[in-house]
From TrEMBL:
The protein, known as: Enoyl-CoA hydratase/isomerase family protein
PANTHER family in the record: EG:BACN32G11.4 PROTEIN, ENOYL-COA HYDRATASE
Organism taxonomic ancestry: Bacteria, Bacillati, Actinomycetota, Actinomycetes, Mycobacteriales
InterPro entries: ClpP/crotonase-like_dom_sf, Enoyl-CoA_hydra/iso, Enoyl-CoA_hydra_C
Annotated signal peptide: none
UniProt record similarity statement: Belongs to the enoyl-CoA hydratase/isomerase family.
Region feature (Disordered): 238-265
Organism (species): Rhodococcus gannanensis
Alphabetized Gene3D superfamilies for the sequence: 2-enoyl-CoA Hydratase, Chain A, domain 1, Lyase 2-enoyl-coa Hydratase, Chain A, domain 2
Composition-biased stretches (Basic and acidic residues): 248-265
């Protein structure tokens, strides 16, 4: 098993893999020491070298993530080459977030701008606070999106609304973010990380194979016909019913007891 003892920005909170994506020391801009550690940890999770039932994305500071470090962009001798490198590193992380079979929860306090907003869109569940704000931020500095925003945002809010949000660089407040589906729900500002961890821990204690199947079905639904999706659902629920997790869940329901999904792993 892979040890996380040498990691600074990744740790296990029980069965939750907690990954910081931004730090106060970097002004809560996207921290690539965090990203690189997160990528390594997610690879280990996918390979079974780390055991976790959920992933939690957090920012260590006033904001979840205020976007890329534009000062670093400006000081690079070759700006194009520098941004290409950091985009590839971020995209390795996003690909692994998309590929992981466990639920991904984001604790979105303060600002989620630029790449920070992209990472919120990459999560399965996003918990925000009353003062949370989101902004594409790319056109404000003459850039185009990265982190998957041009893929995930239209699937969350629709193509027309995604175009408006990115092109006008609109600031989306917390209530509007919930209405659009960018955030799952809101809690008090000082409870965002606590509540997001509670949600992630609850998921980590649940039917992990069921979650994997749910995520796989949702991931393919955008490119699938209804008939093909129905076939995929039938195959998935049949396999679940025959497997240990489905058997435990159904038996527990019939026996009027709480299912012990941990025993089925």
């Amino acid at each position: 098993m892979t040890s996380l003892d040498t990691y600074r920005f990744v740790r296990l909170d029980g069965d939750v893999l907690r990954i910081a994506v931004a730090t106060a020391g970097k002004g809560t801009s996207l921290d690539f020491d965090c990203v690189d550690e997160g990528t390594a940890a997610l690879r280990a999770l996918t390979a079974g070298e780390i055991r976790a039932g959920a992933v939690l994305l957090v920012g260590e500071g006033a904001n979840f993530c205020a976007g890329g470090n534009v000062r670093d962009f400006a000081s690079a001798p070759d700006r194009g080459a520098y941004v290409l490198d950091v985009a590839h590193r971020l995209h390795d992380f996003v690909r692994l977030l998309a590929a992981t079979t466990v639920p991904v929860v984001a604790a979105v306090q303060g600002w989620a701008a630029g790449a920070g907003m992209s990472l919120v869109c990459a999560a399965d569940i996003a918990i925000g606070g009353q003062s949370t704000k989101m902004r594409a931020a790319y056109p404000g500095v003459g850039l185009s999106p990265d982190g998957g925003m041009s893929f995930t945002l239209p699937r969350i809010v629709g193509t027309r609304k995604a175009s408006e949000l990115i092109l006008t660089d609109a600031v989306v407040d917390a209530d509007e973010a919930v209405r659009l589906g960018l955030l799952s729900r809101l809690v008090a500002d000082d409870e965002v990380q606590t509540e997001a961890l509670r949600v992630a821990a609850g998921l980590a204690d649940g039917p992990t194979s069921s979650y994997a199947s749910i995520k796989a079905l949702l991931a393919r639904s955008g490119d699938s016909s209804l008939s093909d999706q129905l076939d995929a659902e039938a195959a998935s629920i049949s396999a679940a019913a025959a497997g240990p997790t489905g058997r435990e869940g159904v038996d527990a329901f019939v026996e009027k007891r709480r299912p012990d999904f941990r025993a089925t792993r």
